[in-house]
Amino acid sequence: MAVDRAMLDAHRAEEAPATLRLYVWNRPTVTIGRFQKLETVDREYCAAEGLGLARRPTGGRGVLHDHEITYSIVAGVRDGLPRGVAASYRVLCGALVEAYRELGVPAEMTARERGSSATGACYLHATAADLSLDAAKLSGSAQVWNADSCLQHGSFVITRDVAREACVFGLGRSDARVLAASTATLSDALGAPPSSAQIIDAVKTGVRRVLGVHLEETDLSETESEHARTCVEQYRVPISDA
């Protein structure tokens, strides 16, 4: 999360170009939205299961990251991204739709919002920033703007452990059943899990096709790496009150 934030700040300062980042997690980790209350997560369960816990620089509800490829895109007005959350979501999620279709999944931007405010689990809710397969939510995205620069990140979920996710967010049996019935993964859609390399190639293709950009693989700059190190504590969440 600190790296994503550092990329955004570097872009705003015109010290870095528009950037696509693709990454995985070294252990299952829960991220919560910038303004989300800690009480929406069962931290005792997370501690007992050895799960990580972090706060995101973006808003939204809690996500359990596990068997997935996570993406982040940093871009801004100077790159041709329209200003404003709704307009920029349409552009960036359009690239994600192309990525899913490259994998053989006919994803669409979610037609209507659904869900209640009673739980902190992102995947029990659907917004216009999400992608769906028929009526099932495939993935969600979250944004934050810094002046004319935008960070958007989200997940390409390969498989989902509904039981674990329900425990993380303290879902009752009814909500757990809704979570299982109203979400879909890449494995569900394709009948078998795609490889990480296939997903990464598809995301690159979608971004190139929709945004009309050339992608050049590189490392973080020294400035971004140092800034990320200084930001880490902002996004660290204690797994217990002890």
How does this model look, in words?
The protein is of the alpha+beta class and 242 residues long. It has one domain (2-212): Bira Bifunctional Protein, Domain 2 (BirA Bifunctional Protein, domain 2). It has eight helices and ten strands. The chain has helices at residues 2-12, 43-49, 85-103, 162-168, 173-181, 186-190, 196-211, 222-235; strands spanning 19-23, 29-32, 52-55, 63-65, 68-76, 108-109, 131-133, 136-139, 141-146, 149-157. The two termini are 24 Å apart. 40% of the residues are buried. The model has no long low-confidence stretch (mean pLDDT 92).
Keywords for this entry:
single chain, 242 residues, alpha+beta, BirA Bifunctional Protein, domain 2, 4-stranded antiparallel sheet, 3-stranded mixed sheet, 8 helices, 10 strands
